[in-house]
Every structure is written in structure tokens, then in C-alpha cells.
Amino acid sequence: MKKSLLALAVLGAFAGAASAQTNVTIYGVADVGIQRSDTNAPGSQALWSMNSGIQSGSRIGFKGSEDLGGGLSAIFQLENGFGIDTGALGAANTLFNRQAFVGLKGGFGAVTFGRQYSPFHIAVDTIDPFETGMAGDASGPFGNLAGYPIRVSNAIAYSAPAMGGLSASAIYGLGEVAGSQGAGRQIGVGAGYANGPLNVQFAYHTSDLRATAAAADADAKKLYLGAKFNFGVANLHAAFGNSEAETAAATTKARNYMLGVSAPVGAGTILASWNRTDFRTANANSDLYAIGYTHALSKRTNLYTSYGRTNNDAVLGADANVFNVGVRHKF
């Protein structure tokens, strides 16, 4: 109870500051839907539930900047995730679990410090026709091996100024494990090209998975290359990923493939994708087929629905089906 009151007090303080300064923006997303999921496993039953953040994670955030002169600005962003279905914080004991950083921005680009999105996630989210949401969320298949690096804590990030459609970024997350310089460390880089109808994204991320200095060596490496092209009547999306998890006992490898399409139809958009995870091991593959539709009620509010089916080989477990319908409002 005390922690909840403290969280509300902090949010209220930031809201007051935002109203007093024009360079601070309050923003957010309220997203909730009804979902049916089942695994087709013997004896299992379908589950109906109300879920928050099906299309986009529900959040409230604060961002702003201060002009320091000479083309230099101080920037910050604080973002809290929460559940519309219950009103609970998105992460226990963490107020700004989605983003929390401060930094400097100028002609050299931007340098920021704190909890931030990884270049890997930004690349996947940019190319995925479902934008890592709904039943076609590509972060699941691309995270099947050794996890999916959405955000990095204790991170130093750099974004280069865009030039002729080219972009580049890098992130370094300190492991902060006593007695070791490398344990828990994360390093990621990304590059992109966006010009006219073409958008190409590349990313590489490596994580040291050791939780203590004395732990045996364990790390994960992920590579992503994706592109989308706007043909006018529809967008074509395609991506390739390669993952490797290495421990003292064994090395496991997987490849990911994604093909998708997004087509505007009146006030809505039809979405479809196929994601395959090839574990490069016999009888250990997975295919996700998804279709969805979003319908804009205004610039900030839309309805959505999607259906996804995952076909798993025996090693991965039972097949799964997911259907959802919901509403999202941005503010």
C-alpha cells in the first residue's frame, strides 16, 4: 500500500512539473482486449481472459528537453508500464520499467544513460507488420533461443545523426556483477536505411548470461536483418535472424525467418505474417501463422483483432491458438 501511494505521488509530482513547463510532454497508451488461448494439449481447456497491452503495451510517460545553447540539448524520458485490466504496475517494485534515461543531444547525435530499448528490438519492431504486438508478435519467434533483448538497464546508448536515410546506434549495458568486468554485460549495435518506399534494418546483440563472477561461461548472440517495401497497395515485409546460445556444456543454434504483408483498406489495415524458428536440430522447429486487422476510429483510437496459430514440433510442445479483439487509445 505504501509503495502504491509513493508511486502515485511520484507520478503526480511529474504531472505538476509537466504543466508548468512547455518542454515536458505527458503521453501514453491505454490498450485492452479480450483474448482466447488454447494449447490443444490433452486435458487442457481454452482460456478466456482480459489482457492489457495486446497491440501495444499500456503506458504513461514523461519526456522533455532543455536548450543548453550552441545546438546542445539535455533530454530525458521516464515511462511506466501498467495493466489496464487490473490497474497494477507492469513490474513489481519498478516504477519506470519501460524506459528511464537522461542524456545530451546535438549535432553529434545523442548520448543517453539509463534503461533503454535495444537496437535489436527497434529493428524487429520496425519491420514486423504487427509491430511486435497482437497474435503475430515477431519478438516471440525471434526470442525463442536465449531470450529477446527488448530493453537494457544500466546502459550507455549512442544514436548517430541521420544522414541521407542512414541511421546507426549502439548500446552498452554494464553487468554490475561484483568481481567481474564482463558478467551480465550486454552490447548491441544497429544500422538502418529508410528512403522512399524502402526500409532496411540490421542489428546485432550479445549478452553475457553469467549472474555471478564464479559462474561458468554462458553467453547469447543474436543477429537480425530485415526489410520492408511499400508497393502502394501493400507493404511486403521480410526478415532473417540467427541466434546462438553457448554454455560450458553445449552450444545451441537457431535461425528465424519472417514473411509478412500489411495492406491499407479504407480506414483499416490488414496484417498477415509467417514466422519460422529452425533450431537446426531434428524435430525442434516452430511455425507461427497470424492474421489481423486494425480499424482507425480517429488519429489516436483504433479497434483491432487478430488470430495466430503456432505449430510446434514435438520437442517444443503442443500447438497453440490465440484469438483476440480489443481497443487502443493513444494520448
What would a concise description of this structure say?
Its main location: membrane. By secondary structure, this protein is mostly beta strands. The protein is built from 3 helices and 17 strands.
Describe the structure.
By secondary structure, the protein is mainly β. The chain has one domain: Porin. 10% of the residues lie in helices and 56% in strands. The protein is built from 3 helices and 17 strands. A hairpin with a 2-residue loop joins strand 13 and strand 14. It is globular and about 60 Å long. It starts with a helix and ends with a strand.
CATH architecture annotation name: Beta Barrel
Shape label = globular
Low-confidence stretches: 1-8, 17-21
Structural class, from helix and strand content?
Answer: mainly beta
What is the CATH C-level name?
Mainly Beta
- How many domains is the backbone divided into? 1
Number of helices: 3
Radius of gyration: 21 Å
Beta strand count: 17
Give the name of the CATH superfamily.
Porin
Biggest sheet: strand arrangement: 1-3-4-5-6-7-8-9-10-11-12-13-14-15-16-17
Largest sheet: 16 strands, antiparallel, barrel
